[in-house]
Amino acid sequence: MTTPRMLRVNSILREVLAEEVEKLSDTRLELVSITGVDTAPNLRKAVVFVDALAEDKDGVLEALRAAGPRLQRAIGREVRIKYTPVLEFEIDSGVVAGERIEQILRDLQPGEEE
Question: Which of 20, 22, 80, 104 is buried most deeply by CB count within 10 Å?
Fold first, then answer.
């Protein structure tokens, strides 16, 4: 169960990370969105969920992991919390599932040819 405090922490971290990712010059991160953050209750670890329009999602995760220390420093600078969490990055499975469902629904539409 996520407490209101943790929801605020997750929201703030998501905003800080989204702003910082926009500043990165890595071309693999041009079409990346931070969709959510799930921080552990002890604030030691945070899983960052991302959505990428790029085909090479592994490359996106690799670029984010490489930028991890810079992103953690940004959190340390901009957010006042007891610990700066260690960041882990994952592709948001909810977005992937939604895209799959959307494609199935498009395929079921009769007579609509592009």
Answer: 20
